[in-house]
Amino acid sequence: MSYDKSLIKELEHRAAKIRLLSLQTTAEAGSGHPTSCCSCADILSALFFKVMRYDPKNPASDLNDRFILSKGHAAPALYAAWSEAGYLEEKELFTLRKMGSRIEGHPMPSLPFVDIATGSLGQGLAVGVGIAVQQKKVVKNSSRTFVLMGDGEAAEGSVWEAFSLAANLNLDNLIAIIDVNRLGQSRETMHGHDIQVYARKAKAFGWEAIVVDDGHDLNQVLEALERAVKVNGKPVCVIAKTLKGGGLPQIADKDNWHGKPIMPGQGLEEAVQEVSKHIMQAPPAPVIAKPESVSFKKITGPINNVEPAPYKKGEKVATRQAVAPALLNLGKSDSRVWVIDGDTQNSTYSQKFGEQYPERFVECFIAEQNMAGVSAGLASRGLIPFAVTFGAFLARAFDQIRMAALSGLGVKFIGTHAGISIGEDGASQMALEDLASFATLPNGAVLYPSDAVSAYNCIVTLAKHNGPGYVRLSRPASEVIYNSNEEFPLGDLKVVKESSSPAITIVTAGVIVHEVLKALKNVAAADKIQVVDLYCVKPFPKDRLTELVKASGGKIVVFEEHSPNGGIGAETARNLAGAITSFKHFAVDSVPRSGTPDELLSSFGLSAEKISETLNSLL
Amino acid sequence: MSYDKSLIKELEHRAAKIRLLSLQTTAEAGSGHPTSCCSCADILSALFFKVMRYDPKNPASDLNDRFILSKGHAAPALYAAWSEAGYLEEKELFTLRKMGSRIEGHPMPSLPFVDIATGSLGQGLAVGVGIAVQQKKVVKNSSRTFVLMGDGEAAEGSVWEAFSLAANLNLDNLIAIIDVNRLGQSRETMHGHDIQVYARKAKAFGWEAIVVDDGHDLNQVLEALERAVKVNGKPVCVIAKTLKGGGLPQIADKDNWHGKPIMPGQGLEEAVQEVSKHIMQAPPAPVIAKPESVSFKKITGPINNVEPAPYKKGEKVATRQAVAPALLNLGKSDSRVWVIDGDTQNSTYSQKFGEQYPERFVECFIAEQNMAGVSAGLASRGLIPFAVTFGAFLARAFDQIRMAALSGLGVKFIGTHAGISIGEDGASQMALEDLASFATLPNGAVLYPSDAVSAYNCIVTLAKHNGPGYVRLSRPASEVIYNSNEEFPLGDLKVVKESSSPAITIVTAGVIVHEVLKALKNVAAADKIQVVDLYCVKPFPKDRLTELVKASGGKIVVFEEHSPNGGIGAETARNLAGAITSFKHFAVDSVPRSGTPDELLSSFGLSAEKISETLNSLL
C-alpha cells in the first residue's frame, strides 16, 4: 500500500524531529540512549501523528488513546513526540536528566502523558492490559492502548504473562509494537533480526501478529499500524525490524552504542546533518485525530460510607476471611474498587467480590507479575485495585510493585497465609519477608491486623490511603477482640493489655497478639506487662509507642512471625532507637518446616507456652 | 505403538501404588493435594520405572537423570515414587507434614533427590535449565533432566523465560512434561484441556512438542517420553491431557478438590478400592536403568589460593569494576565458579569472565528470574554461580532468590548501580530496597563494600560462604582506602576513622563512606567522631559495633543511600537496641529524581557538604 506522499513526507519530518531532539538533548545531558530513540522514531511518528487519537492539550484524558513506552530508556524520543504534538516546549526538553526537571532519564508520571514509570524492562504490557480493560469496561469509548516494547525486553517472562492474559480477555483495543533493533545493552538479543520468531510467539499466545520488514519505511509502518487497529476480537502485535541508531548511517546497527550520547566532535554534527535532511522548512501543523467523546464522568475523592465490620467480639474468624466483606462493601460504596486474583480466590476470600462484581474482577491466573502490572494500569486511570494472593507469592511481583510505588500509584495488595502459622504446607508457602519488602515503598502503608474486625478496617483504611500499600493476613481463626466500630487509622496502634505500672512493653501483631494474651494468663507478674498490637507497621506510630515504652523504662519484647530483618522488630528498634534500654526479639530466624501451627510457633518461641516461659524468666 | 503387556501392567501397578500412598499419607496428615498427585501418577510411573536412568540408592548422584517436581504440591506422589524405587521406606511416607519429618508438605532439599524447594509455582524449569547445562558442560555423560510442571503454572512468565533460554542453549537433554489436568486451585485454567495451545507455545519458543491425548494411558505416556528422549538439538515438551484426581472416578475432573485430602468416611475407602484394582499381588522388583558412568570427579571444599586484589591505595576505581578481577581470579582458582549474566555484562564488568571462561558463562538475556533459577540449578549440583546485574533488577527475581535460600543453596548475587549515586538515569534504575530484601534470606550474607579492594575481597568472601548472599556495588569511582591484603570476613566491620574520645559513631557504607571522610575535613570537632565502614550488613558485627558505640556514649549517626527501611540503619538499630542513646538516620526516604550524583546525595543529606553541616550541628 502507498500513502499520500505529502503525508509520508510530514511523518518523515516528525520522525526526523524526534531523532534530532533525542540527539541534541542527550548530548546536552551528557548521557542517555539516543540510538534506542532512533530505532523507534518512525514508529512514534506514525503513532503520534496519524494513528493515535488524543487531545494533545489534555494528555491525561481517559478519552485519549493511551501510549506506554515500555522501553523506557527511549524517553527522549517520547518527550520529543509530545513536543511535536504541541504539549511540551522544545526548550523544556533540554532540561533532560537535570535536577528538578520532570524530563527525567526514564519516564515518570509527573508528566501527565506517562501512566507508569518505565525503565525496568518488560513491565509496560501488563500495565497496558490494565488500561485496555479500563477503556473497555469503564470509559467505554473506542480508545485503544499502544505499548511500545524493545526486542530485548521480550525475554522477560512478565511480557508473556501479559500476552496470555490479553488474549484471554480478547483485548482488541490493545496494540503492542516490538521495536526489533537487534541489539541489547551488551550484545545481540536472543533472536537478532528474526522478526518471524516474535510473530510465531505472539500467534501461539493468541494474538494477531503483523510484521514490518523495514520499521524505518513509514509507508510500511503506517500500513501495519492501520491494519492493527482494525483487528477485532484479539490483541495485535506489530513486529518491526529496525536498526539501533536507525537514520544515523555512521552508527546504525553497530555494537557498543547502547546508552551513549553522541557528543559534539564525536559524531553529533554528522548525525544532525544526516537527520536534518528530512526536516521540512515550513512543516504543516500536526493534524491529530480527536478521541471519541462519551459521557464518561470520572469519580474522584475519598471512599465514603463503608459499612462497619460484620463481626462480634468473641467470634473465631481468620483475618483472611475479612477480605470477603471488606472488598464487597468497598465495592458497593465505590465503583472504583476492583479486585485482581491470581487463582487463589477461594483461599483468599476474594471470590465473593468476583461473584458480585464480575465486571470489576480480573482473573490473572497464576501470574503475580500480571496481577501487579494490571493493577498498576487500573490505578493509573484512577481506579482502586486490590491484588489479593498468598503473601509469599507477592515476592514474585516485587519489581512491579516497586515500579508502581515509584509511580505514586495507589495499588493495594493483600497477602494472606503469612508466616509460620499456616503450618503443614511448609516454608515455600509462608510469607516471611513481606513486611520487609513492602515497608520500603515510598509513601506505602503496611498494615498487619490481628482479628477480623481490624482486618476489615485495615482493608478499608488502605482503600482510602492515597498511595500504595499492603495488608498482611493470616490463615488461622482468631478471636475477635475489637468492637466492630473501632477505627484503625494509619500511623497508630492499639494497647490490648494495659498496665498501671509497666515494666515491659510487648510489641506484636497478627495471630501472635492472641498467643501473647493467652500467655499472660500463666505469667505471675502479668500486671507489669503492657501489650501493643502494632497493626500499622508503616507509617510507624513512633510518638505513641515511644511514650508507652518510656513508661516501661524502655524495656521491649517483640514477638513476630516474620524474618527478624525488616519486620516489626526492626521497625520498632529503628523508630524508637534511643528510647530503648532493653530489647528482646523473637522471630523466624531460620528455615521453618512442615508441622502444626502450634509446633511451629513453639519452635520459634512464639507459642503462648513459650511466650509465658520467656516472660516469667524476664520478670 | 504398543508395549509389552507385562511392562504396562507393572507400570500401572507402580502408578496405583503412587496413587494409593498419596491418598493414604494425605489422609493421615489431614491435609495435602492427593488429586494433584493422581493426575501425574502415570507420568511418574513411566518416568521412574522405565524412562529415567538413575541409581535409586544414590539419589543425589550427578550421574543420574535428574527430576524436578515443579508442581511441588504433588510432593506425596514424588515421595511414593522414591518409595517404590526403594529409596524411602513406606512407613516414613506416613510422617508426611509432621513436625521434624523430612517428608514435608512441599519438597525440600533435605531429601537427597530434591534439588530445589518447589511450591512457589513456575520455578522448576529454569532450575532444570541450570542442571541440564551442568550435565552437558560438567558431568558430560548422557544424563537428562526431567521437569514435571502443572498446567496452571504455565501462566507464570518465569516458565517462558526458561523455555526461551533452553531453546537458545539447544538443551536436548531437558524434557519438560506438562500435566494438563485442567483445574487450577480455584477454577479452570486459562486453556482448560486444550493441549494443542501448549504445543503451539512450546514450538513457537523453539521446542519440540509431543502431545499425549490420554495421560493416564501408559502406552501413550511411555511412547511420548521415549520419543522425547531421542530428540536431538532441542529441548522437548511433553504435554499430557490428564484428569485432576485421575484414577478416582468419583472425584476425577471435578471442581473443589484442590488441596484437600480425601478422608476416611468421605470417599477414601472407595478411592482406595478403585486404585487397588491395579495393584499386583506379587509385583516384580523394579528394573531401573543405570546412568552412564563417566570419570567425573566432583570438586568439594572451600575455594583456595585466590590472588589478592589488584588495586593500590589512592587509585580511583568504582566498586563495580572489581567484579572483573574478582570473578576472573575466583574462576582461575576454582572451576566451580560460574557467572550468569542478564545482558548487563558490560556495565557490571562480568564480561571479562565470559571472555576468559565462555564454558562457565551463561547469558540469560534480559530475564532475571532465569538468572536466579539457572543459578539455583547450578548451585544444586555443587557449583558456585554468581548472578550479576543491576541491583534494582534483582527485585524481579526475589521469589526465586527466596526459594533458593530456603533450599540452602549457595547462590551468589552481585547487584551493581545501587542507590541514588547512579545519578541521571533516575529512580527506576536505583536499587533502594536490595539490602532489605537480601537481609531476610536465612543464612544469607549481605556485603556492601566501599572501595575496590573491599569489593574484590567481599566477592571472594561471598564465594567462600556456604550459603546464599549478595554484594552491593556502586557506579561512581571512589578512592581505594584499603591495602590489597586487607581481609573482609563475614560478621565484621572496619573503623575508617578512629577517635580517642569519641562523642559520635558514624555508621555508613559504600560510596557514602567517602562522603563522610570528606565531610570530616570541614567539621570542627572531627576528633570526636569515629567512622565505621559497615561492609558486612549480615551477619551483623553486633559485638564489635556495640563496643564502639558504647565508647561514644551510645550516640550514632547513620548515613546510607537505601530506603530507611531494612537497610544499615534499621539493622544497626535492631542489633544495638538498648546500647543506643541517640540515633540520627539519613537515608533515601522519598522517590529520587534524575540529577547528578552530587545533587542527589545532597538532596537526601548524604553529600559531604550536607554531612558536615549535620555533624557541626550535632557537636
Spell out the blueprint of helices and strands.
The structure is a homodimer of 619-residue chains.
Chain A: H1 5-29, H2 34-39, H3 41-51, E1 66-69, H4 75-84, H5 90-93, H6 124-139, E2 145-150, H7 157-168, E3 174-180, H8 195-204, E4 208-212, H9 218-228, E5 236-241, H10 268-276, E6 316-318, H11 323-333, E7 337-341, H12 345-348, H13 351-356, E8 361-363, H14 368-380, E9 384-390, H15 398-406, E10 412-416, H16 434-439, E11 445-447, H17 452-464, E12 469-472, E13 477-479, E14 494-497, E15 504-508, H18 512-520, E16 529-533, E17 536-538, H19 542-551, E18 555-559, H20 568-576, E19 582-586, H21 597-603, H22 608-618
Parallel strand pairs in A: 1-2, 2-3, 3-5, 4-5, 7-8, 7-9, 9-10, 10-12, 11-12, 15-16, 15-18, 18-19
Antiparallel strand pairs in A: 6-13, 11-17, 14-16
Please describe what this structure looks like.
Two copies of one chain form a homodimer. By secondary structure, chain A is α/β, with parallel strands linked by helices. The first copy, chain A, folds into three domains: about 5-275, 3-Layer(aba) Sandwich (Rossmann fold), CATH 3.40.50; about 315-480, Rossmann fold; about 495-619, Rossmann fold (3-Layer(aba) Sandwich). The first copy, chain A, is built from 22 helices and 19 strands. In chain A, the strands form four sheets. A seven-stranded mixed sheet of chain A has the order 8-7-9-10-12-11-17, sandwiched between helices. Chain A has a five-stranded parallel sheet with strand order 1-2-3-5-4, with helices on both faces. A five-stranded mixed sheet of chain A has the order 14-16-15-18-19, sandwiched between helices. In chain A, α11 (about 325-335) runs parallel beside α17 (about 450-465). The N and C termini of chain A lie far apart (about 85 Å). The model of chain A has no long low-confidence stretch (mean pLDDT about 95).
